[in-house]
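Lab manual, section 2.4: Encoding a predicted structure.

Procedure: take the sequence of the chain (103 residues), apply the prediction step described in section 2.3, and record the output as structure tokens. A sample record is shown.
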Amino acid sequence: YIMIFVLSSGINAEYGETKIDFAFKIYDFNEDGQICESDLQKVILFLIQPAITGSTLTSEERSQIIRNVISEMDMDDDGSISYLDFKHGMSKLNGFEETFKVT
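Recorded output:
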């Protein structure tokens, strides 16, 4: 489930940001330093736009994906994904540093 949220298009991090720093900022929509349920809801709605993808997810399917992502990445069980949680989760993905690009 983690990979559903990893956007891979083609850029290098700028100004000393690591790719993980940049990726975390993409998902932290409300810029509070945590990736919470509402942030993930926005990511899913952005990635799965029926008019573009032809796909839809029910509210329950979206909620299940969000629960799975948080469960998988939330190391301190506070209900959201901190930067450290995110960094740890991304470090488990083979090839993340090589394949994550933004253009």
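Check your result against the sample. The first helix runs from residue 19 to 27.
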